[in-house]
Batch of 3 targets.
Target 1
Amino acid sequence: GRFVGVDGLLIGRMYDPDYRSLIKARIFANRARGTIGDILLFLEFVLGVSNSTVDVALGVVDVHVGRAISSVEEDIMRALMPVAAGVAIGDIDEL
């Protein structure tokens, strides 16, 4: 486990499963357009969760993940989840 940073965010020591999630997230983020569908696909591709939902408000997207997530997974989501320009990620919680 080495220290890993993502877009200025220092995540810290990572175990192999978390590092694989980070790599998947980076790949997905590089190809996404920032739509709500992209966010749901991101959660399925990176976290393996297909029953997640999102709530959309003016300039904020709250994410409800279909399982418990670790603090590392939340950091990865906040750093790399594809949202449109001008849109912030609000709450991330378990569904």
Note: The longest strand covers residues 88-94.
Target 2
Amino acid sequence: MKPNPVVWFEIYVQDMARAQRFYEAVFQTKLEALPTPEGGASDAGMQMLAFPMDMASGGAGGTLVKMTGVPSGGGGSLVYFGCEDCAVEQGRVVTAGGQIHKAKFAIGPYGHCALVVDTEGNCIGLHSMQ
């Protein structure tokens, strides 16, 4: 297995517009519509909004996904978003409609993390070295 093996993530949502507002506000970025893959996904009521990505660079690309029959909320996997200082993004969470699950905390030589809950009930991580 290669180092940093995760190459894609999907965060499932129930209200795409609400989730888009949350992620754009917290991360101060613009999500872009991503065409649904061929093979009937669009027939299944699938919508996708992509985080900024460069498929030629390291790190994982990913999307918000709304799909008929797929719930949002906690489920055993946790996506961490890299930040300069995770306290900054954490500071935008409540205003954007989310909740702080665990405020910024140190993880020794690996930096700092915060755990927050988005408007769809998904817990996501924020990570920074400062």
Note: Residues 16-27 form the longest helix (12 residues).
Target 3
Amino acid sequence: ARVSHWIASSECTVQTGVLLGHCLHTGQVEGIENVSIADDRGHTLVANIYALVTGRPMALRDLVVANMAINAAALFAAALTLFLLGWKVSALLLLLAPNNVVPGPMPGADAPATHMAAFLFALVATLLIARIPIARSERAGVRWLALIVVASVCLAWATLLRQPYGQGGFLVALLVLALRWRQSARRGEAFLGVVPWRIGVAAAALTLATFYATSGLFALRGVLYDVARSNDAIESHGISHNLYMGLAVPGNPWGIRWDDSAALSHVGEADRVQYGSDDHYRSLRRGYFQIMLSDPLTIAQIYSGKLLESVIEVSRWSKDGHKVSLAVAFSLLLIAVPAGRRRKPSMEEITMLVVVWASFGVVLLQGVLAMPWHQFISPGKFAAICGFAV
């Protein structure tokens, strides 16, 4: 259904020139969130821009090609970022497995086709954050500002394509900033342990990019086209429903099923709140934390089991490109590890390892908190390849 909403929105763009809108039979334009609730908005925006440039609505075939192009752009952006940061061999290793990234693990017109792009754009953001100048002895200037802006744009785009990956990238970026603050504090560059203002500015920019990308677009739409934001429909995916329905493993003691409507009925709100509203997600969030506080041991058992299932699911989907990449990566490790024993790794190298393996952990975390399904954690194998390459 959401794909048909993207196409309908592109048809509306051809008729009216409005982005992120939906044309009514009366000729008026309403916000896309009124008809396509709980959706990530990147595909709608792509369909609108396509319609604006070509003068014709986007078709299913165009969406498939667009998804492949988005994945390809993300792959080359990640490789180029590593290359420019000085990790040239790692960059080349990423390009040895494009057959899984470029078409997408689930090629098609739907959102899961660009999960690889969402993961890779979030990875680019964290790689750049790992290299922004934060020490007082470093000259900031244009480079400092440019890296923050590009990282924020990449994180916002990852969020618009697949919100959990954007939020996961945000968590990794905060971890990297904390490591770098700790490093600067040890060097005596953080006054009395206070977070340097450059780190604070970076964290603020990433927060805005992650949590206000969608609402910012809708606000801009209102300014440009005088289309009001919806007051009773969710603007983007929340995480509350996945947290609650993520407990729906076979035999769970609460009788929870992976079904949005059933979950709302289970918490006793089916007849009192509108589906897709803020109250909907607030009710599921409240129900989740009540269960978590009342039975934490069962929650821990469920999550440990899903972690194992996520690892199995990630390793099961083997392709020839992955085998070649892993073989090359392990061969380089056999050469690099003995040679690296003669010197102490730099903080920069340790930070890069944290970035790539924490990004892999974010993929597994989505399988743990939601469900260890391939369409959710499809970037997992390539995320591991990134870790081995670095």
Note: The chain has a mean pLDDT of 87.
